Amino acid sequence: MPSLGVLLLGYFNAFPIIPQVFTQTLIITFFGTYVFPGVLMVILYLLGGIADLEIKIRHERNWPLIISAFTYYAVYRILSTWPLAPQFIGFFAGMSISVFLALILNRWIKISIHMIGAGGLVGLTLALNTLFGVSSQWPLIGSILLAGLIGSSRLYLGAHKAFEVYLGFSVGLCCILMAMILS
Length: 183
Hints:
The chain is mainly alpha-helical and 183 residues long. The protein has one domain (2-182). 73% of the residues lie in helices and 0% in strands. It contains seven helices and no strands. The chain has helices at 2-11, 19-46, 62-79, 86-105, 113-130, 138-156, 162-182. Helix 1 packs antiparallel against helix 4 and helix 1 packs parallel to helix 5 (113-130). The protein is globular. The two termini are 20 Å apart. The model has no long low-confidence stretch (mean pLDDT 91).
């Protein structure tokens, strides 16, 4: 979802950004929040740190969440030194905070990380529409529909209880929205 968020920020040109910096931001985001954590998850699986790549057991989610928290924070720290609008950096801060919250909450509950991402995407599109003057409602409508599909699939597959899905969505929405408002 972070790469999709960067694409939305670039597509709607909500904040001024140099095209070359945008491309580099997208590359860093994709590798730092998808490729690098994904490769580390496979290594963790091959070393026996997790039983499967779906990570169905709550206590097995600790190392993957630590890895994700570290890589998301690293992306945030790298990009916070770049010539990007404060709200752009706020988006990355919100993502990092949401993953750290998932790590903390995982101690007691198997929060839906898929829904954290979906809620974050809704938070981003909501911020773009209400706070930053993007006039198109379609990304907001699309992100809400996507979040509904993801949440429904998590429930249908039995991967989460309803509370875990709602909590994940709320964490993602609030973290991204508040970070962008406060930046």
